[in-house]
Amino acid sequence: MQVPLLRLQCGKIGQQSAAAKYAAASASADFSIEADRPYAELWMGTHPSLPSKDLETQRTLLDLVQDNQALIGSEITQRYGSKLPFLFKVLSIKKALSIQAHPNKKLAEELHAKDPRNYPDDNHKPEMTIAITPFEGLCGFRPLGEILHFLNTVKPLRTLVGNQAANDFEQIVKGSEDSQDPAVVEKNKDALRAIFTSLMQSPQESIEAAAKELVAEAENSPSTFAVSPDSETNPANASDLAELVVRLNGQFPNDIGLFVLFFLNYVKLAPGEAMFLKADDIHAYISGDIIECMASSDNVVRAGFTPKFKDVATLTQMLTYSYAPIDEQKMEPAEYPYATLNMAAWTSGSSVVLYDPPIEEFSVLKTDLNQPGAKATFEAIPGPSIVICTRGRGKITVGPKTEEVREGYVFFVGAGAECIIENTGSGEGEEEEEVFTTFKAFCELESHELPNGH
Ligand SMILES: [Zn+2]
């Protein structure tokens, strides 16, 4: 039987950036370069829009796993069919990506049936983001106190929303911003839906007039954006927020997104930090290089910062309207007990950490092997994995097969196979700089028994 370790060639979109650099090591010859795109994506998986190929045979991974279901494992095949349940990506963002949300399963089916051109999948798309370089984005609605604060202090925002709508909103939520009472929370969400929907429906000429005023204020009197004295409004100081307004307006002049900014949490992730987005959570990525993992789907409902198809009506209807501080959306990585480190790995402080979102399609492991000779052995799991190297040099071994690994190399590891990853170093430079970093996305339906019977 064939050893279940394949080096993959992956499709990519766009140029320049970490994703493009990795793609140069992994991309197929026939990918289409769209150099004018402000971002780049490397896709790793079996999604039909950009399926990965086995480098050696040039067969698509989709074709290979359909031919040999043991590569995916019987449990996964039964649940998801003969394809990967997840799509793994590297995404490099130079310019803000559209304000968007991804539909839940039921809505995805409806949208796909109605409009298959704009909604190519009938699947939901929860997604997880792990920063490789410093990342910034917008994610979820701000706590209501912050939104009220901006409605009262940022005049062009209040003008655009309308005095009446702003007053109505304030009347309902003032005093109950932080209430946990489910009935009150529902009432507040309805108020948020009403004011956000009316904002999103603003006519373009009103947006333009308000945007000009907003940008002038940001340039001339950034203190207009002073943060609320009683909450940690992000970004934490007025000049950062003013800078963001000016920068985003440079990318998307007079866009409704400039005002959406005051409704959404502004989040920064340091390398290694992660966040998880449920279906129907609103978000927009602003800058940085990230690893993304998502249920295998390409459905996006967009409504700002985009030249693409916008669907404001669907977006404003579908959103969860959950409002919370950003910390609640960030994920803490956990220790992963099913990888064994050798002595060189232990003594160099190497680590394997698990990002485990509350869905079953995927989890991701980040492995840092801090010096040459450091090695991690991953127990066999009953599902498939994809491994990408983002830094350093090493090798990967499955059974009798060993392959060299460099930055940007991507591998598929079949179900049921033990996998060993080792730092081999470059033979140049200081040893302490020779960290070897890989990310491994995987799916297993029955999670391992936790040790000690927990
Ligand atoms: Zn997204």
Automatic annotation (TrEMBL):
**Catalytic residue list:** 302
Indicate what this protein is called per its UniProt record: Mannose-6-phosphate isomerase
Q: Which family does it belong to?
A: Belongs to the mannose-6-phosphate isomerase type 1 family.
Role noted for this protein: Involved in the synthesis of the GDP-mannose and dolichol-phosphate-mannose required for a number of critical mannosyl transfer reactions.
State which pathway it belongs to: Nucleotide-sugar biosynthesis; GDP-alpha-D-mannose biosynthesis; alpha-D-mannose 1-phosphate from D-fructose 6-phosphate: step 1/2
List each copy of the Phosphomannose isomerase type I C-terminal domain by range.
353-399
Which positions does UniProt annotate for Zn(2+) binding? 100, 102, 127, 283
Give me the Gene Ontology terms describing cellular component: cytosol
Q: Which reaction does it catalyse?
A: D-mannose 6-phosphate = D-fructose 6-phosphate
